[in-house]
């Protein structure tokens, strides 16, 4: 097993910004930077044969994790994996269909279905991600921080019940109304698995962990307060209460949940992720004591370089130089020109 003794980071801007310390410049990285836009990624993906093979081969996952650091100059690496490895580790395997995305051949919609699942044991069921983190840590050699991540329980619930991606996740949402007891039981089991998993990620070298609540925006504020926020709170509290993990910053990104910014800002987390519908000044008022991450519209990267630079300047001015980690408001789109991604990154770094 590679040695993972703590190494002093040469560039710890993301971590210092996350903790609210003063930074010389705004740090920048991109959600979904590791698996979408680079020809170099597609070459490794081809060599692996499939997404799942790539994600479960630690050496290859580590290689594509480091690519954006080398090729784009981002201030952080995010481990190459997927949020759906947690359901799989709980006993619900997924398949990745080319051009379509993930599918669960079996779904979890009743208490009887739930009985077939266990709480994920990270070392036993997710050891390949932990090994990828350890190898990545070595490859990075302290150049930039390594970010771990997991899906927020409600977003994972969506995929486990619906069985696939959806615009409305109406099967998942229906269960919140028709069988809230079951919904809470499944959410709790996902939460317990996620706490163990994120702790293990930190143990394997993750310097910060981000929760992706990608489908938060389909819930009403009341439903969000009932079915999503309490589970995110449990995760934040559990990590912060653990003496070996508590120092690790936590980012909560709840896409579309503009109504929940204030409540998320009061969680035991360090950074609140914003999508591009969320106004910077308003978000500062709602979340006065935490670092904000985001939030350029990913479509800005389709524009000409001059416009990308202008939009970046506007974003940086709106957030101010401190307590901000520059990013897009959601993952970079797969058909984005990597040169335009570099324009975005350089515009932040040279501001
Ligand atoms: O892209 C990267 O930086 C690599 C790591 C990464 C991350 C952070 C992947 C690899 N997936 C994710 C997170 C993820 N996965 C989220 C949360 C972030 C977000 O909202 O974008 C979600 C919702 C998923 C689920 C998922 N996995 C989808 C969406 C399905 C839908 O329609 O609802 C898809 C298409 C995937 C597949 C996937 N995950 C990652 C890659 C590179 C791919 C493409 C598969 C391939 O290469 O064949």
UniProtKB/TrEMBL annotation:
<keyword id="KW-0627">Porphyrin biosynthesis</keyword>
<feature type="binding site">
    <location>
        <position position="214"/>
    </location>
    <ligand>
        <name>substrate</name>
    </ligand>
</feature>
<keyword id="KW-0210">Decarboxylase</keyword>
<dbReference type="InterPro" id="IPR038071">
    <property type="entry name" value="UROD/MetE-like_sf"/>
</dbReference>
<dbReference type="GO" id="GO:0005829">
    <property type="term" value="C:cytosol"/>
</dbReference>
<keyword id="KW-0963">Cytoplasm</keyword>
<protein>
    <recommendedName>
        <fullName>Uroporphyrinogen decarboxylase</fullName>
        <ecNumber>4.1.1.37</ecNumber>
    </recommendedName>
</protein>
<comment type="function">
    <text>Catalyzes the decarboxylation of four acetate groups of uroporphyrinogen-III to yield coproporphyrinogen-III.</text>
</comment>
<feature type="binding site">
    <location>
        <position position="159"/>
    </location>
    <ligand>
        <name>substrate</name>
    </ligand>
</feature>
<dbReference type="InterPro" id="IPR006361">
    <property type="entry name" value="Uroporphyrinogen_deCO2ase_HemE"/>
</dbReference>
<feature type="binding site">
    <location>
        <position position="330"/>
    </location>
    <ligand>
        <name>substrate</name>
    </ligand>
</feature>
<dbReference type="InterPro" id="IPR000257">
    <property type="entry name" value="Uroporphyrinogen_deCOase"/>
</dbReference>
<keyword id="KW-0456">Lyase</keyword>
<comment type="subunit">
    <text>Homodimer.</text>
</comment>
<feature type="domain" description="Uroporphyrinogen decarboxylase (URO-D)">
    <location>
        <begin position="147"/>
        <end position="163"/>
    </location>
</feature>
<dbReference type="GO" id="GO:0004853">
    <property type="term" value="F:uroporphyrinogen decarboxylase activity"/>
</dbReference>
<comment type="pathway">
    <text>Porphyrin-containing compound metabolism; protoporphyrin-IX biosynthesis; coproporphyrinogen-III from 5-aminolevulinate: step 4/4.</text>
</comment>
<feature type="site" description="Transition state stabilizer">
    <location>
        <position position="82"/>
    </location>
</feature>
<dbReference type="Pfam" id="PF01208">
    <property type="entry name" value="URO-D"/>
</dbReference>
<dbReference type="GO" id="GO:0006782">
    <property type="term" value="P:protoporphyrinogen IX biosynthetic process"/>
</dbReference>
<feature type="binding site">
    <location>
        <begin position="32"/>
        <end position="36"/>
    </location>
    <ligand>
        <name>substrate</name>
    </ligand>
</feature>
<feature type="binding site">
    <location>
        <position position="82"/>
    </location>
    <ligand>
        <name>substrate</name>
    </ligand>
</feature>
<comment type="similarity">
    <text>Belongs to the uroporphyrinogen decarboxylase family.</text>
</comment>
<feature type="domain" description="Uroporphyrinogen decarboxylase (URO-D)">
    <location>
        <begin position="27"/>
        <end position="36"/>
    </location>
</feature>
């Amino acid at each position: 097993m590679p040695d993972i003794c703590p190494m002093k980071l040469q560039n710890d801007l993301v971590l210092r910004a996350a903790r609210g310390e003063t930074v010389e410049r705004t740090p920048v990285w991109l959600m979904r930077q590791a698996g979408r836009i680079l020809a170099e990624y597609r070459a490794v993906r081809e060599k692996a044969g499939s997404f799942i093979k790539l994600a479960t081969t630690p050496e290859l996952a580590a290689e594509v994790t480091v690519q954006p650091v080398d090729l784009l100059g981002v201030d952080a690496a995010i481990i190459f994996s997927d949020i759906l490895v947690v359901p799989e580790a709980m006993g619900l395997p997924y398949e990745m269909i080319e051009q379509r995305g993930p599918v669960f051949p079996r779904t979890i919609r009743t208490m009887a279905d739930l009985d077939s699942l266990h709480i994920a044991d990270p070392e036993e069921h997710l050891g390949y991600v932990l090994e990828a983190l350890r190898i990545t840590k070595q490859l990075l050699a302290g150049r930039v921080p390594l970010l771990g991540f997991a899906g927020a329980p409600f977003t994972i619930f969506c995929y486990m019940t619906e069985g696939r991606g959806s615009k409305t996740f109406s099967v998942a949402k229906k269960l919140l109304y028709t069988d809230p007891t079951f919904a809470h039981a499944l959410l709790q089991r996902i939460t317990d698995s996620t706490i163990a998993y994120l702790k293990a990620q930190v143990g394997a070298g993750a310097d910060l962990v981000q929760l992706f609540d990608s489908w938060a925006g389909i819930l009403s504020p009341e439903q969000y307060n009932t079915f999503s926020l309490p589970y995110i709170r449990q995760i934040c509290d559990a990590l912060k209460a653990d003496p070996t993990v508590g120092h690790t910053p936590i980012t909560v990104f709840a896409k579309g949940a503009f109504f929940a910014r204030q409540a998320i800002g009061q969680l035991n987390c360090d950074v609140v992720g914003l999508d591009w519908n969320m106004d910077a000044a308003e978000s500062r008022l709602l979340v006065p004591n935490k670092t904000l991450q985001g939030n350029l519209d990913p479509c800005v990267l389709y524009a000409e370089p001059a416009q990308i630079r202008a939009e970046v300047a506007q974003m940086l001015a709106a957030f101010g130089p401190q307590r901000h980690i520059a990013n897009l408001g959601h993952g970079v789109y797969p058909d984005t020109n990597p040169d335009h991604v570099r324009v975005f990154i350089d515009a932040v770094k040279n501001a």
